[in-house]
Amino acid sequence: MLIYLRVLKESFNFAINALKNNKLRTMLSLLGVTIGIFSIIAVLAAVDSLEKEIKGSLSSLDQSTIIVMRFSFGPSEIPQWKRQQFPDVTYEEYEYLSKSLPDLEAASFVLNVPQEAIKYRENTANDVGIAAVSWEYYDIEALQLEEGRFFNQAESVRGAPVIILGHDVAENLFEGSDPIGKKVRLYGRKFTVIGLLEKKGQSLFGGSHDTNVFIPVNIVRRIYGSNSRSTFPQIVLKPNDDVDDNAEFVAMVEQQLRNTRGLKRDEVNNFFVNQLQGFTDFIDNITGQMNFIGLIISGFSLLVGGFGIANIMFVSVKERTNLIGIQKSLGAKNRFILFQFLFEAVILAVIGGLIGLFLVWLASVVVSQFTGDFQFILSPWNMFIGTAVSAVIGLISGIIPAISASKLDPVEAIRTGM
Questions:
Q1: What's the gap between Cα 374 and its chain centre?
Q2: Which of 155, 192, 273, 303 yields a CA-CA distance of 20 to 30 A from 4?
Q3: Where are the strands (E) in 98-248, listed by range?
């Protein structure tokens, strides 16, 4: 074991000397490994960050949650032209499903509408996400309130002008004072603040609850009208915890909605019943494909880097031919010489890989500063992958030069070196 530690130490010294004595040549050769590792780890980190961001927006909802709407979460066999003719789900269908579905814990009607500005006296909060929902949504997403309450069933049904503010919205409008009971202006109307959400996390609506507000869906229906295409209606369903077969529950939802829409047996569904679990599986599939494509493209950079390391090692073998002959004449075995050059190749490749990892970390810091809530994350696992791939590239690139060095005849090596 001690002899291999000595070989490792000597190989490290040779690698450092190669960097010192032939800076330009070595750096140009290592550039391929650096770029390759940078490309691979940057792709992995970007995809991981994107996946975490998307799944984080769904984390507050149970994976058994079902969303009924005219769009599909994933690919569909139904032609696009036909999907575009699907009608939106309606409030009446939400009421029907709420009453007719067994094993249903909660159902909520949701309208996604454009962002708006909210005013309180001279203060204005711009680009606020408007979550227009029925009262059951509070239980479906298990929202956490810092102050006040969520609107009740009566307020939801009649479309009362009440509002629950996200933390950042309240800060912008009230600058630290208590907002409960005060009136803000939205859609040209006055809404009474009855609740304040805790500061936290991502939401189903593609942003942070901190920049969202919640209002009764029926007041938004009156403002936009029932047939407006600028709204995006959904019915959110949460089955009971004791429902073992989610597929059976989905089939029941489909049958009930087909009945209320009067669809015939041979007609396809003109709606989609989307499961969050299916959506996360779809995300995993997409990110897996993105990773694969990115790795293929980055592999070409690593291939060039591998040729660069092999070039360095062949030159190193040629420059140290005399030294190899002396070592072998003094009793050094072939495997000693072999490991010496292999270690050197691996160390050089790992140095290039570490430079690539440093550049990815630097890029992640810079990108995160300009993307707001989106955080570009370089995980320890990706760092390990980068280091391991670098070592493997060094091992593969150095194996042929190392074998050629280990097989040199000592007499010929000394004579050639002289």
A1: 9
A2: 303
A3: 104-112, 116-120, 123-133, 145-148, 162-165, 183-186, 189-197, 212-216, 232-239
Question: What single-letter DSSP state applies at residue 190?
Answer: E
Q: How far is CA 384 from CA 301, 346, 353, 357, 380, in A?
A: 19, 15, 11, 10, 6
With CA atoms as reference, report the closest residue to 109 among 262, 276, 236, 266: 236
Beta bridge partners of 133: 110, 216
Ranges of residues in the chain with a pLDDT under 50 are 202-206
CA–CA distance from 108 to each of 3, 138, 208 (Å)? Answer: 71, 9, 20
Q: For 86-100, how does the pLDDT look when each residue is reduced to its tens digit (9 = 90+)? A: 888 989 999 999 888
Domain boundaries, the chain: 2-57+287-417, 87-270
Please give the backbone phi and psi of residue 205, each rounded to the nearest 5 degrees, phi first: -90, 15
Predicted pLDDT at 203: 45
Q: Which amino acid is at 118?
A: I
- Under 8 Å between Cβ of 231 and 224: yes
pLDDT at 185: 94
Residue with tokens 């309130």: 145
Q: Which amino acid is at 193?
A: V
